[in-house]
Each structure stands twice: as structure tokens, then as C-alpha cells.
């Protein structure tokens, strides 16, 4: 099963809604890969023994892992945290998330600065490249359990837009011009 992604509409409704255009404009895995977004579908029920996950972690150097159980009753200042996650930002490092339960949305900007909504569900592992403008929100299920992977000690510093002079952003923009014709390393 492939991940679902689409260009969003411009309505200012609840961020947990799908925000699909009418008619819907799906986005392919190839288009996401052109933006540096990588995807795998794994077995979330056996993540502790998943050989494919082990290979990904070893190949990419993800030696630290933790869990995020995101639901109102588990997180202090839940609504404030969601607002922060939904503020457009970049990171200096990749953002790696593996959905074990529930579902949520990652929104990323494409080369024309349009929003693409990526709906992650159990089994979906995505990697957002350092420097890509993005945001995160829950969907209407209002619950997701995510594995977060890091290279080295966990760093999660968000740099809110605008960040066009940030080294990670400059490197990302440069990589977009070099990425044409590069084969996919993910599913």
C-alpha cells in the first residue's frame, strides 16, 4: 500500500481536515522523491524485529530512537504543541517519522511553493530532508504513535519561516537542482 499525498486547497478550515482540492490532485511518490521526501511501508506490528527497518537505520546512521504518543490526554499543553508543529518551519537535520498507530499529516512545500499534504498511517515511514519547509498536524482521528529516529543525540529545533539564509535551507534548494534523474533509494 502506497502513501497518499495531494496538493491542498486554500481553505482556512480546521487543519485536521484533508484539505483536498476539488477535483483532488494526487501527488506521486516520484514527485515526493524529487523533493527529497523518501518513503517506505513497513510492518508496524513487528517493528522491534523488522529487518527492513534495521537496514534503513544502519544505512542512514539512525542510532537513536524514541516514541511519541500524541493524543490530548498524553501531552501537556496539547493544543499549543499542535499549533507549534503546524507552524511552517525547517530543521537543520532530516526529520524521520515511522507511524506505528493512528494517522496524521505532514505538509511539505514543493518547488513552486505549493503545499502537498502527506497522510501517514500505520506502517508508513517517511524522511523529510533537512531544509524543506513543512508542518505537521493530526487528522480527525486525533491520535498518532510515532517512532522518531535520529543520527546521534536527538535534536528537534524548528526554525520558522522565513529561513532562506539558513545553511540547511540553502543546501536543500541547491540539492533540488541536482536531484533531477537521481534514482530512488526508497520504496
Automatic annotation (TrEMBL):
Annotated binding of Fe(2+), by residue: 89, 91, 95, 134
Enzyme Commission number: 1.13.11.54, 1.13.11.53
Residues that, per the record, bind Ni(2+): 89, 91, 95, 134
Annotated GO CC locations: cytoplasm; nucleus; plasma membrane
Pathway(s) where this gene product acts: Amino-acid biosynthesis; L-methionine biosynthesis via salvage pathway; L-methionine from S-methyl-5-thio-alpha-D-ribose 1-phosphate: step 5/6
Co-factor remark: Binds either 1 Fe or Ni cation per monomer. Iron-binding promotes an acireductone dioxygenase reaction producing 2-keto-4-methylthiobutyrate, while nickel-binding promotes an acireductone dioxygenase reaction producing 3-(methylsulfanyl)propanoate.
Compartments, record wording: Cell membrane; Cytoplasm; Nucleus
Keyword field: Amino-acid biosynthesis, Cytoplasm, Dioxygenase, Iron, Metal-binding, Methionine biosynthesis, Nickel, Nucleus, Oxidoreductase
Major subcellular location class: membrane
Alphabetical GO biological process terms: L-methionine salvage from methylthioadenosine
PANTHER family listed in its UniProt record: ACIREDUCTONE DIOXYGENASE, ACIREDUCTONE DIOXYGENASE 4
Family: Belongs to the acireductone dioxygenase (ARD) family.
Name the record gives this protein: Acireductone dioxygenase
Gene: LOC110421061
Amino acid at each position: 500500500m502506497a502513501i497518499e499525498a495531494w496538493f491542498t486547497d486554500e481553505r482556512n478550515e480546521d487543519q485536521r481536515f484533508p484539505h483536498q482540492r476539488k477535483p483532488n490532485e494526487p501527488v506521486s511518490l516520484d514527485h515526493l522523491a524529487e523533493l527529497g521526501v523518501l518513503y517506505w511501508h513497513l510492518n508496524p506490528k513487528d517493528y522491534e524485529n523488522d529487518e527492513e527497518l534495521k537496514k534503513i537505520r544502519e544505512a542512514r546512521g539512525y542510532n537513536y530512537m524514541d516514541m511519541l504518543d500524541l493524543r490530548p490526554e498524553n501531552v501537556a499543553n496539547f493544543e499549543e504543541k499542535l499549533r507549534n508543529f503546524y507552524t511552517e518551519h525547517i530543521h537543520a537535520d532530516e526529520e524521520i517519522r515511522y507511524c506505528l498507530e493512528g494517522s496524521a499529516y505532514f505538509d511539505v512545500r514543493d518547488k513552486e511553493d505549493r503545499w502537498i499534504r502527506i497522510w501517514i498511517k500505520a506502517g508508513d515511514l517517511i524522511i523529510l530532508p533537512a531544509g524543506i519547509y513543512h508542518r505537521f498536524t493530526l487528522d480527525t482521528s486525533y491520535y498518532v504513535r510515532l517512532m522518531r529516529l535520529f543520527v546521534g543525540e536527538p535534536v528537534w529545533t524548528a526554525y520558522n519561516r522565513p529561513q532562506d539564509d539558513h545553511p540547511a535551507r540553502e543546501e536543500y534548494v541547491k540539492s533540488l537542482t541536482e536531484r533531477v534523474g537521481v534514482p530512488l533509494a526508497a520504496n
